[in-house]
């Protein structure tokens, strides 16, 4: 288990009329990473944003520091198929960590290697009903594993309880591997369930409407961190 819990607000729920200010405000409120939910209206039934948004926000994030004086990472979750062209574009646009769904890539290992070759950390994402078999082959190549606790494609969904068992299984796989790999969870994370998700083995948490949908970002993030103590 990593020493520090990561809070990664998803800009999918932010106010796009003032996105730069939203990013600054949420980091000042105590968040660690900025999470991008990239949807292509093909792999998932929604269309969000592309690399230009990442490129425009990078000058802001690179000048920000977290409360622990750590750099603010841009955490890109690709819900797209094919993976490789957009992964390359986001790497060039300033992404620090790029995750993709193995079933969206023709050659998972090649996609992993391509992302790493462009200087980014890399993760794999697993939907609620998706098996974890591919981890047997590539887990040692990863920096992050993202478990979807909702079905991808829309914000504001409720946490799927069976995700807890999957998180526990992934934590065991990471422990057996012996490598420091972040275990991130995305979907329905709120102050009242984040402790339960952490107890299952997660150490990074994506939250969209639970943070950006509230008036006081500091209050929500503080509640999350208090629950994690």
Q: Can you walk through the features of this model?
A:
With 229 residues, the protein is of the alpha/beta class. The chain has a single domain (6-228), classed as Alpha-Beta Barrel (TIM Barrel). The chain contains 9 helices and 8 strands. It has an 8-stranded parallel beta sheet with strand order 1-8-7-6-5-4-3-2. The longest helix has 15 residues, at 163-177. The model has no long low-confidence stretch (mean pLDDT 95).
Indicate the topology.
Elements: E1 6-9, H1 19-28, E2 33-39, H2 51-61, E3 73-79, H3 84-93, E4 97-100, H4 108-117, E5 121-126, H5 135-138, E6 144-148, H6 163-177, E7 182-186, H7 194-200, E8 204-207, H8 209-212, H9 217-228
Parallel strand pairs: 1-8, 2-3, 3-4, 4-5, 5-6, 6-7, 7-8
Helix pairs in contact: 1-2, 2-3
Features:
229 residues, TIM Barrel, 8-stranded parallel β-sheet, 9 helices, 8 strands
Query: Within the CATH hierarchy, at the fold level, what is the topology?
Result: TIM Barrel
Strand content: 15-25%
Number of helices: 9
Mean pLDDT: 95
Structural class: alpha/beta
The SSE string, one letter per element, is EHEHEHEHEHEHEHEHH
In percent, how helical is the residue content?
A: 25-40%
Q: List how many beta strands DSSP finds.
A: 8
What general form does the structure show? globular
Number of domains: 1
According to CATH, the homologous superfamily is Aldolase class I
Strand order of the biggest β-sheet: 1-8-7-6-5-4-3-2
Pick out the low-confidence regions: none
CATH architecture level-2 label: Alpha-Beta Barrel
Write down the CATH class: Alpha Beta
Ends apart, CA distance between termini: 14 Å
């Amino acid at each position: 288990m990593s020493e520090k819990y990561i809070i990664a607000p998803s800009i999918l729920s932010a106010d796009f009329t003032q996105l730069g200010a939203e990013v600054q405000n949420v980091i000042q409120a105590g968040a660690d990473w900025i999470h991008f939910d990239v949807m292509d209206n093909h792999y998932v039934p929604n269309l969000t944003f592309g690399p230009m948004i990442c490129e425009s926000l990078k000058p802001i994030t690179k000048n920000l520091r977290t409360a622990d004086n750590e750099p603010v990472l841009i955490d890109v979750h690709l819900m797209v198929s094919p993976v490789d062209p957009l992964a390359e574009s986001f790497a060039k646009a300033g992404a620090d960590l790029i995750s993709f769904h193995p079933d969206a890539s023709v050659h998972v290992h090649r996609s992993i290697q391509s992302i790493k070759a462009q200087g980014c950390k890399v993760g794999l994402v697993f939907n609620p009903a998706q098996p974890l078999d591919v981890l047997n082959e590539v887990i040692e190549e990863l920096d992050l594993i993202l478990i979807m606790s909702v079905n991808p494609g829309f914000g504001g969904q409720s946490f799927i309880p069976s995700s807890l068992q999957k998180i526990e299984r992934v934590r065991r796989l990471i422990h057996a591997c012996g490598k420091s790999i972040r275990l991130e969870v995305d979907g329905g994370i709120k102050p009242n369930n984040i402790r339960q998700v952490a107890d299952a083995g997660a150490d990074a948490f994506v939250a969209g409407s639970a943070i950006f949908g509230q008036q006081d970002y500091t209050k929500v993030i503080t509640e999350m961190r208090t629950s994690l103590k």
